[in-house]
Specification:
By secondary structure, the protein is α+β, with helices and mostly antiparallel strands. Helix content is about 25%, strand content about 30%. The chain is built from two helices and five strands. A five-stranded mixed sheet has the order 1-2-3-5-4. The radius of gyration is 14 Å and the shape is globular. The mean pLDDT is about 90.
Length: about 120
């Protein structure tokens, strides 16, 4: 679909977490970004000191109050079950990490941040 992607590693990130759950956590956030990025858009992943940030193009903000609910889908995109972000939230809660969503209207970007 012509999606551009980039990755920025500004710091080493060491996290105490089950390896399988970490893979699910990271892959769900990144897969979500690619699934919901419009054709020709872009996805950026950055790693900083105790932070993982995934941003992607998008024309309108999502409902942040419902985004992490099971089976909630903002769009009817094929392959989306509405379980990815609730699983991310559950893993974060279990390990006392913090996952947040915001939308930058100026750049039309969705921003998912996980603080470890």
């Amino acid at each position: 679909r012509g999606i551009r992607s980039s990755m920025s590693l500004d710091a080493h990130l060491y996290v105490y977490i089950n390896e399988s759950l970490l893979r699910v956590l990271v892959s769900n956030v990144i897969k979500n970004a690619f699934t919901h990025t419009p054709e020709g858009g872009d996805v950026d992943v950055s790693v900083g000191d105790k932070v993982l940030c995934v941003t992607n193009s998008g024309a309108t903000p999502l409902d942040g109050s419902r985004l992490f609910e099971r089976f909630y889908t903002a769009t009817s995109r094929a392959g989306s079950t509405g379980l990815g972000l609730p699983i991310v939230r559950s893993i974060c809660e279990h390990y006392n990490f913090r996952v947040t969503y915001s939308y930058d209207e100026r750049s039309c970007r969705h921003i998912f941040t996980i603080r470890f």
